TrEMBL record, chains A, B:
EC number(s) on file: 2.4.2.21
Sections of the chain in a coiled coil: none
Catalytic function, reaction form: 5,6-dimethylbenzimidazole + nicotinate beta-D-ribonucleotide = alpha-ribazole 5'-phosphate + nicotinate + H(+)
Keyword Transferase: yes
PANTHER family xref list: NICOTINATE-NUCLEOTIDE--DIMETHYLBENZIMIDAZOLE PHOSPHORIBOSYLTRANSFERASE (PTHR43463:SF1)
Protein family according to the UniProt entry: Belongs to the CobT family.
Gene Ontology molecular functions: nicotinate-nucleotide-dimethylbenzimidazole phosphoribosyltransferase activity
Keywords of the record: Cobalamin biosynthesis, Glycosyltransferase, Transferase
Lineage: Bacteria, Pseudomonadati, Pseudomonadota, Betaproteobacteria, Burkholderiales
Catalytic-site annotation from UniProt: 307
Keyword Amino-acid biosynthesis: no
Protein's recorded name: Nicotinate-nucleotide--dimethylbenzimidazole phosphoribosyltransferase
Length: 341, 341
């Protein structure tokens, strides 16, 4: 595993010239200009293109739900996977609208689906263990999940991959990862998840704080991931690492997906060059998590749904960045006068 | 002209129930939920739909350019109209990407195009007069422009209309309108436009301040519009009023388009019920102008290009709002368990 930084001064200058020659005031496409430049650097070319974008939705269950940290029962994980397969969830609607392939992966749901059209079976366990008592995964299982994610990313045809997740209890896992990897106090990492009350949030905080005390030895990224993470989070982190190695654009969704990236970035910091941050979630800790990564999200719509919905909604902006660079006229070609001041 | 407020308590409750029954945590689609609700109230139905979205780009010239308030020469107005017709501008690229019809209207460009495919000729003059010396338009001309805009909106087939503009010097006109209609000091209304230096911005401020003193009598909306506005701004305001009367969704772009809405809203405040604010522009005064209208924009991408580009980029979010309400499963239909806490 080796991820190359995208830094390339000559190419960056070439991209900037191309962007600045378009028939528009200098810098007037704002974030889209930075995005076009980043895509050029990722693809290592002036001739940028998006091919076959896809979103991988990883699903798994979490032993920590035994502590009563979620507003919804654990069965909702498999029920929502069924909803994905029946094309009834928000991510189905938004992925279809924006011509994005959707792939649903069972990384460790506590339910037997049997062989099902549209479901990629990579189930490694019927959920993790309860990290309030013991590590969620063994190091071995965690490494197996990372490797399974890498293998999945190797199979992707397209050059843009979005990440999504489903797993009742996974904002608790993500908040614990955030605390361990950024040092931000647990109280600032926890949020309402699918809809906890203020009391529920406080309880969730206490559960994490106690677990963090119990597993104080876990500090290195893989250990932190194994101790507090989930199978969907670990498999996603593996897929992110491989996708970046393959120089794909990584489209990062909300709180849980970003926590997987925190782990991956701790292992291979250059992965961040490949990341486009789809949105800032309304889940309490996400803004600080993004800040910790120096990330500037494209959208800020108060979403807190997960599933990769932010990725699907941000995809048109990636197309816009590519299209303006490829299709707009230049001042010269359109014979438009340049700035006179 | 009569614009009905969209308020309808029974329908709002029905829309909220439909939104809340979708398979997602309550409120988790954030701004998209508010948007679906607003579209339902505008269309006065639970069965919402977007049909044939279009963007009207109004172009005109401004006499006040004689004061040296723009970074680009006046010829850029007609040159950019040519660029629109040749499909080389940013708005062409984004409108095509998002399947949005584009209509370019010559409201008063200082150039003779002759009959041209794709250009709607509603030229009322070769630009306005210099408001540093005299009113930009007579009241009659201004009313003719408003009426021409109303007629254009009456012809639209679709139920979503975005507004865009092109006119060298029109951020100066828009800043003057903003000051007169909101009372915000001129210094906070002016910005760099297409790229003025700090000195250039200060000069622009002084030009507006002197003109405001000269035309202190203009306080009523039509007088303010005639005195400081532009033919594209007046025609756009007329089109907005008629489109709202016809219960269409109005998609509002950046600084200049919002200044036209300021005028329209002063005339008929209920127009605001029909407005979706596409983005917050990087042009200095736009955020305060939106605040003055109580507007919450969908996007915040540092754009300051005009042409209706923000509208085209925001359109996929309108589709997302409509699609989630129409296509997502309910907890009941998908047999997903509801909240347990």
């Amino acid at each position: 595993m080796s991820i190359s930084p995208t830094h390339n001064e000559a190419l960056a200058a070439q991209l900037d010239r191309a962007i600045n020659n378009k028939t528009k005031p200098l810098g007037s496409l704002g974030v889209l200009e930075a995005l076009a430049r980043q895509i050029g650097l990722i693809q290592n070319t002036r001739d940028i293109a998006l091919t076959k974008p896809s979103i991988l939705v990883f699903a798994a269950d979490h032993g920590v739900v035994a502590e009563g940290i979620s507003a919804y029962p654990q069965d909702v994980t498999w029920q929502m996977v069924e909803n994905f397969l029946a094309r009834g969830a928000a991510i189905n609607v938004f992925a279809t609208q924006n011509h994005c392939e959707l792939r649903v992966i069972d990384a460790g749901v506590n339910h037997d689906f049997g062989p099902r059209d549209g479901l990629t079976d990579r189930k490694l366990a019927h959920g993790t263990r309860n990290f309030a008592n013991e590590p969620a995964m063994s190091r071995d299982l965690c490494q197996t999940a990372l490797a399974a994610g890498m293998a999945l990313a190797s199979e992707l045809e397209g050059n843009v991959v979005g990440f999504g997740e489903m797993g009742i209890g996974n904002t608790t896992a993500a908040a614990a990862l955030m605390h361990k990897l950024t040092g931000i106090p647990v109280a600032q990492c926890v949020g309402a998840g699918t809809g906890l009350s203020a009391d529920g949030i406080l309880h969730k905080q206490r559960v994490i704080e106690a677990a963090v005390d119990r597993h104080a030895h876990a500090t290195e990224a893989l250990d932190v991931l194994a101790t507090f993470g989930g199978l969907e989070i670990a498999m996603m982190a593996g897929a992110m690492l491989k996708a970046a190695e393959l120089r794909k654009i990584l489209l990062i969704d909300g709180f849980i997906v970003t926590s997987a990236l925190l782990v991956a970035a701790r292992m291979h910091p250059a992965i961040l060059d490949y990341c486009v941050f789809a949105h800032c979630s309304d889940e309490n800790g996400h803004k600080q998590m993004l800040d910790a990564l120096g990330a500037k999200p494209l959208l800020n719509l108060g979403l807190r749904l997960g599933e990769g919905t932010g990725c699907a909604l941000a995809l048109p902006l990636l197309h816009a960045a590519v299209n303006f660079l490829n299709q707009m006229a230049t001042f010269e070609s359109a014979q438009v006068s340049e700035k006179s001041e």
